[in-house]
Amino acid sequence: MPRFKRSHTAAGWLAAAVLLTSGCTALDSSSADDAGEGASYEQAYADHEPLHVVGYPSTGSLRVVQELVWDIADGKADELRKLATGDSGEAEARKTGENWIKAFGTGADGKVTGDFYDGGSERQVVVLYFHDTRQKAEFTARLDGDTGGENWRVLMKSPDFKDATRTPGWAPKEPGGTGSRMKNNG
After folding, report:
1. By three-state DSSP, how is residue 116 classified?
2. Would you call 51 helix, strand, or coil by DSSP?
3. pLDDT in tens, 57-91
4. In the chain, is it the N or the C terminus that has fewer CB atoms within a 10 Å radius of its CB?
5. Considering only CA atoms, which of 54, 64, 56, 45 is closest in space to residue 139?
6. CB-facing half-sphere around the CA of 141: CA atoms within 13 A
7. 3-class DSSP assignment, residue 183
């Protein structure tokens, strides 16, 4: 009997070791596969000051606006274009992004507050306050595709520099002045 138990015990330990090793390999390969978009977002988050928030963004609108600010700060016109809504033409989106980089790049590299208006279930108007340059700009984030199937995107249909960089006259001088509901951090 003891010999039988020892062989089963050894076989059990060997099987456990094989399973653990293959499980670790599976975990490593799955996390590498998952590292794509999420890892780049997390790296960008580590490399930039986070967006300060006023109002009630949805998870999706907050993420796309945060990426918008980072891409403007980094001068990444191609990445900005990828954030454009489906009805923003390729040339329109590229030119709008270039205008935003030129106008707001310096301010986006510092402290930025996003004042999120509306409910955020399908679309949100967001006023970004670039504190270092004392600029503010209005952006529209919305669900894109059939019933939002393509996730949150930014309307980029202002190839004219003056139109793309127009200061929203209706927005308060400071974040949270009117319309948004709660200051989350500042």
Report:
1. strand
2. coil
3. 999 999 999 999 999 999 999 999 999 998 889 99
4. N
5. 64
6. 30
7. strand
